[in-house]
Amino acid sequence: MDLTKLTIRQANKGLKNKNFSATELCQSYLDRIHKKNKEIFAFLTITDKMALDQAKTVDKWIAQKKEIPLLAGIPMAIKDIILVKNVKCTGGSKILENYIATYDATVVEKLRNQGAVILGKTNLDEFAMGASGEHSAFGPTKNPYDLERVPGGSSSGSAAAVAADMCCYSLGTDTGGSIRQPSSFCGTVGLKPTYGSISRFGLMAMASSLDHVGVISKTVEDCEIVFNSLKGKDPLDSTSISPGTQAVDFQIKGLKIGIPKEYFIAGMDKNVENSVRQSIKKYEDMGAKIEEISLPHTEYAIATYYIIVQSEVSANMARYDGIKYGYSINQNTKSEKLLDVYLKSRAFGFGQEVKRRIILGTYILSAGYYDAYYLKAQKVRTLIRNDFEKAFKKVDVILAPTTPTTAFKLGENTSNPLIMYLCDVFTAPLDLAGIPAINIPCDKIGSLPIGLQIIGQAFQEKQIFKVAGLL
Amino acid sequence: MISKKEVEHLAKLARLGLADKELEKMQKEIASILDYFEKLKQVDIIGVEPTTHAVALKNIMRADQKRKEFDSEQRTKLLSAAPETKDNYLKVKAILKENGSY
Fold first, then answer.
1. Prediction ipTM score
2. For chain A, give me the number of helices (H) and strands (E)?
3. Which residue has the higher pLDDT, B100 or B1?
4. Residue A420: pLDDT band with limits 50, 70, 90
5. Which CATH superfamily is domain A3-230 in?
């Protein structure tokens, strides 16, 4: 039996029935990682010892006949922008190349309490800025379905690791599509939950009004299990919320599904469009009512999104200054002025995309431009949210493609940053609105997966899991 | 269009060193991205309130009590991440000369 193919429930059952031990399960994944990581480069750090220690603890619980939680002993991976105590956390950046986390993120603490086995930290675009994984300071992750192609980004390693059976599930982050877009390219299930539903304490901030922590998995059921164990208010994150329990009386028959006409645009891959339309037809055959809707401000979403992101990035990146932690020119020379410590540490530590965003954000927020850019974008953001609010008066959920194309080739989109930005065209609006959306694989063109996006109202994750589970 | 000089000034404001070659490349790329942002000029926003966060929350308070302090192990670890420390403080370079100028 190949243990790296099991779902959470299957693995949990196997552990309880003593078909295999948590240590064996963990070792199967570690073997797989050590075999595969050279070509895929999904992991930046592999935490063999910590993982095996955690697995041994779970084996002890089982030997003591304790009731084990569903996630106990299940091997998983964490995007290297979320802190795991005493483990290196680089954010995919040279500026934190040797940074060791001093505490656990709340999500990590929750996982540990349930006995989760942490296999390692996954590769990403530097500080989650990118849509291909190619902006990692340590080298790109490859798409397991085609090693010449990108896995998507910024949660590149988290999606590729799940797709290549190098972990059972993983944590990612999504600011403009960074969970759903790589999930679409790698054929994984990827949830960006409602803004505030999962704590961000211990996550390195990129764009604070848009950052979400979420889950990448092989099945919808796994995704729901992990989401349920992570969600909820955290006193250490004042943007987090507990919405209370949502009672869902779900029936596909008569469910009103909206199809936004602005999400089927000229220039998108015809095969992607056909596959998504066929999936929609399947829901119609199950008894759902399909209705075309309009989200008229969609075409302004990318400009709005990037104005807000660059602004917030320029503020959030200020903390990497060569003084408190991370790379510092100070370490190499003792005779610099303070200003030079800043200039040189940041010049060396940051990659091109991060630098570009810092400069753009500084420009946008400078006196005389704030109203024209940041404030204006925040107002258009309101209009984009209103589009969804209006739509949800008519329909229960919205279906759309996750990305306009399948995975592109490494190097194909790196020469023009604007083209990379346009990868987020179908995903960024949901971050702006803060509402939940999940990618599920719905088809393939040749070897390359195609993703369908299911979008729900705020805190209605349960409903989108139900819809997703039917395909 | 944004000039090279402006980019240089912004870089200094952002405390970001840029090599000459980077400056030139950055200027072109930033100009094309700013052009794209012009798209928002088409949108009528009269009377629209800005959205600062997707979920509107305000003034999340906690009890005015002393919270758990860092233990000495954590303090040591946090300090050891800094490039230069002195007597359990972070040490930074001088920003003033002895005669007060700089």
1. 0.92
2. 15, 11
3. B1
4. confident
5. Amidase signature (AS) domain (3.90.1300.10)
3-state DSSP call for residue A76? Answer: strand
CB pairs under 8 A between A and B: 167
Which member of A102, A324, A350 has the closest CB to residue B90? A324
Rounded Cα distance between A156 and A141, Å, is 6
- CA A183 to chain B, closest CA, distance in angstroms equals 23
Identify the pLDDT of residue B70.
74
Q: Which domain holds residue B29?
A: 4-42
Contacts of residue A239, defined as CB under 8 A and 6 or more positions apart, other chains included, come to A195, A196, A200, A208, B53, B55, B57
Minimum Cα–Cα distance from B63: chain A residue:
A235
CA dist., res. A131 & res. A143, Å (int) = 13
Euclidean distance between CA atoms A239 and A468, whole angstroms: 27
**Contact list, B71 vs chain A (CB under 8 Å):** none
**SS3 (DSSP) at A228:** helix
Domain count, chain B: 1
Q: How far apart are CA A29 and CA A301, in angstroms?
A: 40
CA distances from A230 to A158, A198, A217, A235, B81 (A): 17, 6, 14, 14, 29
Q: What is the CATH number of the domain that holds B32?
A: 1.10.20.60
What is the amino acid identity at position A317? M
Min Cα separation A193/chain B (Å):
12
Is the Cβ of B16 closer than 8 Å to some Cβ of chain A? yes
Residues of A with a catalytic annotation lie at 79, 154, 178
A366 contacts B13? CB cut-off 8 A: yes
Q: B87 lies in a domain?
A: no
Residues 45-74 of B with CB under 8 A from A: 45, 48-55, 57, 60, 62, 74
Residues A365 and A361: their CA atoms lie apart, in Å, by: 6
Instruction: Give B61's pLDDT tier (boundaries 50, 70, 90).
Output: confident
Distance CA A91, CA A353 (A): 14
Considering only CA atoms, which of A206, A150, A465 is closest in space to residue A320? A206
Is B101 a domain residue?
no
Taking contacts as CB-CB distances below 8 angstroms, the residues of chain A near B83 are 322-323, 328, 330-331
Task: Pull the structure tokens for residue B86.
Answer: 């002195």
Give the pLDDT band (50/70/90) at residue A310.
very high
Q: What is the mean pLDDT of chain A?
A: 96
